[in-house]
Amino acid sequence: MACPYNFLMISADRNHPAWIFWDSIADAVNPGLVLLLIAATWLSSRHRTDLPQNGRIAFFFGFLGRALLAILVVYLLAHLPRWLHWNPFQSKFPSGHTAFAASVVTSLWLLDARSKYFGLPLLAAYAALIVALGHHIWIDIVGALILAPPIGVWCHRWRSTARQAITA
Questions:
Q1: Which among 126, 112, 121 is positioned nearest to 67, based on CA atoms?
Q2: 134: which of 3, 25, 66, 90 fits an S-S bond (Cβ 3.0–4.6 Å)?
């Protein structure tokens, strides 16, 4: 049976070529976002003329480290209820795939606010795709979007406030 939100007309048969194509696209989004995060952080660090060379390297590894910390915390919080069987009726809430993507998009947004112009539409398209494929329902997506951005902001702000407290 096809998903009721199947606007892409994806066959419910997982061996159908259209389903395999769209599932391959969905599988490539999160690794692509991580590569984009690494490239954007590297380019941003290279264009930081206000920092000396070693400051640019520290910026690159510091920002990327905080982004990876945010991804890890979001991943653990999204999957902990499943691993511990806290809610046997809803085993896919929140969507770990969407939480991961939202965490990366949040980090990109904090790196450069202009990234929202491609990050948010990409995140919306990705969420719609995994719902259309039947991997998740919309409430799973909403749960992930509530979970990921505040944690991403906190992980990025945490290091900044800690550094200010040490140097003060």
A1: 112
A2: 3
